[in-house]
Design a protein that fits this description.
single chain, about 325 residues, alpha+beta, N-terminal domain of MutM-like DNA repair proteins, Helicase, Ruva Protein, domain 3, globular
Length: about 325
């Protein structure tokens, strides 16, 4: 499943190519890819004539704020019923732009908003979760249709945003105008803080792990504890912090929890810089693989020498997931 770095990479890519283009039509090839209660026909009808104002990421969800096309200056300033907002969200700056011309830095990045900030929009929202094998690809409409294409959104200029999903677990939502996003995309209500947010501190992590009689690997996979981390980067985080995956959360020392907190930030930042990880299905919006797999410490490296001590990387089953670790470097 694409995790935070992969979804963040996709979000940044979408913000470079999709905003301010009219959605002129589409085609739903698999009805179950559209989340209920809206029908596939109504989903396309609601999107037609709109444009994407901006994409955001929340955990592993992608959320696009919509606007009517063409959108005037006044509409952009009041997309959520008020002036542009400025604030802090962890190490990222976020801004609700009031100018249709985004500068290159703003265009290239996504800026997740704090939980609860995805409020009503005058034109609604588009939500996407890629689940296990979903891909969002920005292509020419003339590009041959792959076997597992599920949804096609047609944009002006003969461009297309294509949702491809082999396992068919991914979903798309249309959130009506003047509706809180979490009331439609209900999984958002279950998410914990973002790793780069001010809320995610060592003290927060200590409180959440205190007295938990489950492995730290299982805890890191819990989206209600921390949004966006998954199997790949949980293994990487535990290697960087030097902790065995089966260690119980309640048995961790304050110093170990501090190491885990720092490792989460470090590993995710490195993975985002590398464009995510490709081991099977993940591609960015241009159809390019992520590069983090080539520098991974332990994930998917069973039997290979540890990059630090040369001991063979081991693999076990833990929290119903494949778990990779170095028996010498992790204690």
């Amino acid at each position: 499943m694409p995790e935070l770095p992969e979804v963040e990479t996709i979000c940044r890519g979408l913000n470079q190519v999709t905003p301010d283009r009219e959605i002129v039509g589409g085609d739903v090839l698999l009805n179950s890819s559209i989340a209920r209660p809206i029908s596939a026909t109504d989903f396309l009808a609601k999107l037609q004539g709109k444009s994407i104002f901006r994409w955001y990421r929340r955990g592993k969800y992608l959320l696009a704020e919509l606007s009517q096309f063409p959108a005037g200056e006044g509409e952009r300033e009041s997309a959520r019923g008020g002036d542009g907002e400025m604030g802090r969200w962890g190490d990222f700056r976020f801004q609700t732009p009031i100018d249709s011309q985004l500068d290159s830095q703003l265009s290239a990045s996504s800026f997740p908003l704090p939980p609860g900030s995805f409020g009503p929009s005058k034109a609604g929202w588009l939500g996407v979760h890629l689940r296990m094998t979903g891909q969002l690809l920005w292509v020419d409409r003339s590009e041959p249709l792959p076997k597992h294409a599920r949804v096609r959104l047609f944009f002006e200029g003969n461009k297309e945003l294509r949702f491809v999903d082999q396992r068919t677990f991914g979903q798309m939502w249309y959130v009506p105008a003047q509706t809180e996003v979490a009331n439609t995309v209900t999984g958002l209500k279950l998410l914990g803080p973002e790793p780069f947010s001010e809320e995610f501190t060592t003290a927060y992590l200590t409180r959440k792990l205190h007295r938990r009689r489950r492995s730290i690997k299982a805890a890191l996979l819990d989206q209600s504890l921390l949004a966006g981390l998954g199997n790949i980067y949980a293994d990487e985080v535990l290697f960087v912090s030097g902790i065995l995956p089966a260690t119980l959360g309640a048995d961790l020392t304050a110093e170990q929890i501090e190491r885990i907190h720092s490792a989460i930030i470090q590993v995710l930042q490195k993975a985002i810089e590398s464009g995510g990880t490709t081991f099977s299905n993940y591609l960015n919006v241009q159809g390019v693989n992520g590069n983090y797999g080539g520098v991974a410490w332990v994930y998917n490296r069973t039997g290979q020498p540890c990059r630090q001590c040369s001991s063979p990387i081991e693999r076990i089953r833990l929290a119903a997931r494949s778990t990779h670790f170095c028996p010498q470097c992790q204690h």
